[in-house]
Amino acid sequence: MDKNTLLAVVLSVIVITIGFSVQSTFFPPEPPRPQQDQTAVVPAESADEETAPETAVTGVRQVANIKRVDSATVKEETVLIETNIFQATFSNRGGVLTSLKLKEHEDNGKPLEMIYTGESNETAFNLHFGGPDREAVNDLFRVVRLDGSSVRFEGDFTYRDDNGNNVPFTLQKTYTFKPDDYLFELDISIINSINDIPRLENDGFAYTLSYGPQIGPEFSSLGGRQEYRRFYQYDGSKRHTVKIDKDTQYSTTNERYVWAAIAGKYFTVIAVPGAASYSTTYSSRPIPGLEDTAKIHFSRPVIKSSRNTDTFRFYFGPKTARILEKYNEAEKNGFNMQDLDLDEVIDQGRILGWLENILKFILLTFYKVIPNYGVAIILLTIFIKIVLFPFTHKSYESTSKMQSIGPKINELREKYKDNPNKMNAEMAAMYKREGINPMGGCLPILFQMPIFIALYGLLNKHFDLRGAVFIEGWITDLSSPETIFTLPFTIPILGWSEIHLLPFLFVGTQLWSSKQMSAGSMASNNQMKMMTYLMPIMFFFILYDMPSGLLLYWTVTNLLTTVQQLFITRHQKTHPKGA
């Protein structure tokens, strides 16, 4: 096989490789905006805290000038609130959320847990007097059940001012839910009953509200393809990716924004803070029992009134446009929120997002005809093959013609091996006589590249594929690898404990397709032998744990490609003049 045909094959492999690595190669996280303050919140020292350890974001420094009023009569209890959407569990120790399950979505056959703690005991919505390094308030709060969908936790404290006076105040945390909303409200109130101002100030902040330690569902690792966690901020016109410092594992900004989010592959937590100018800290620092964390800390400036309430709104739910867009129109949600643009949290290719949307529309159209996403993927694959037929047909024809004159090309190379200019001239003349464009086998592939990339993005993260069954008992979730057998041990180095069938079908069809495309030249071309056998095997290991929807698409593509190549080869044998 001549070098032009080899170049065509190499380009094909590059295209596929680019498709599989598109998230990290073509769509890296957006660089963060220039921020006013990209430094960590470093607590200021005080005379009565000299022995406290200095840490950033993960410390447990105490606050000496705030004391809890005796709460010996308060007993520890658990509070449960259930809506059509949530099953929320609270503890009055700190007034925190210990569990939030999504009733409409499952994880391992159970309602999906959004408060992922791993083996840690950390909870969500801890409050710290001062910056995020301060010790979380862990006292027992009184429970006030406002109604079936609202609960208030309150505790009495005193603040010692600069004159040594103890100023009393009440801290309230009020959670409010609506029956059919993935959004809920959290009000933080600090109230002084004698019209005095409890000037809470530690590290320059009145308090910090923290969400963490991680969002669900459960995961074994965050590799980027199967599952990931990303921090986003939306400024009202554009979404920005928050870059976490690799060394400190956190980032802090004082900029104003509409919302901040922790985004996973299919689910997200979005925080819409109140009107105060919060300092926001994003952290991925590990904690005991949980190596991968995703936390957001909202540090509130000093309060200058005797009664103050800050309202936070939090969205816990799926990354689906039909739900997120409800919060763009007041009449469509229970909190009358509008223009939040929560749907901007959905990940799309920055360059080819428009093409992903077109392919998604076609996929959903097939799904409406036959309500099985596996069948819809197969129909989408056939549709794409039909659309791309003029390009791929020309490519395969050109490759086949190049193979047919391979012996003549080799003769010219041998005959004029000492005269490269003459050899190139004779080869050009032969191409012209035979009606062959040497680049005809590879240029059409460039037109297919955008579709390969867009399909990778679509099938790798389309929400509706999560839990979608193709074949009962085999492919029961197109968003994850299928399993035909679970090993009683883990394969060393590879770390595999499950046997997946689709990767074997993929590599088999890929080998068959590659062999058909290079038929007739394999015996005399060791490079082609290596590419034909080695590349599919390499992809086998790359794709082994990929979602079954993606592998289904590639396997069907290989089969259709092979059938097309067999047809072209047979046609050229029976119609040599028209070949």
UniProtKB/TrEMBL annotation:
Region (Disordered): 28-56
Compartment(s) where it occurs, according to its Swiss-Prot or TrEMBL record: Cell inner membrane; Cell membrane
Sorted UniProt keywords: Cell membrane, Chaperone, Membrane, Protein transport, Transmembrane, Transmembrane helix, Transport
Stretches that traverse the bilayer: 373-392, 440-459, 489-512, 533-556
Membrane topology label: Multi-pass membrane protein
Annotated ranges, domain Membrane insertase YidC N-terminal: 79-358
Cellular component aspect of the GO annotation: plasma membrane
Chief location bin: membrane
A Gene Ontology BP annotation from the UniProt entry: protein insertion into membrane
Domain Membrane insertase YidC/Oxa/ALB C-terminal residues, every copy: 373-570
InterPro entries in the cross-refs: Membr_insert_YidC (IPR019998), Membr_insert_YidC_N (IPR028053), YidC/ALB3/OXA1/COX18 (IPR001708), YidC/Oxa/ALB_C (IPR028055), YidC_ALB_C (IPR047196), YidC_periplasmic_sf (IPR038221)
GO molecular function annotations of the record: membrane insertase activity
Subunit structure: Interacts with the Sec translocase complex via SecD. Specifically interacts with transmembrane segments of nascent integral membrane proteins during membrane integration.
Function field: Required for the insertion and/or proper folding and/or complex formation of integral membrane proteins into the membrane. Involved in integration of membrane proteins that insert both dependently and independently of the Sec translocase complex, as well as at least some lipoproteins. Aids folding of multispanning membrane proteins.
Family: Belongs to the OXA1/ALB3/YidC family. Type 1 subfamily.
Protein name per Swiss-Prot or TrEMBL: Membrane protein insertase YidC
Protein species of origin: Marispirochaeta aestuarii
Gene it is expressed from: yidC
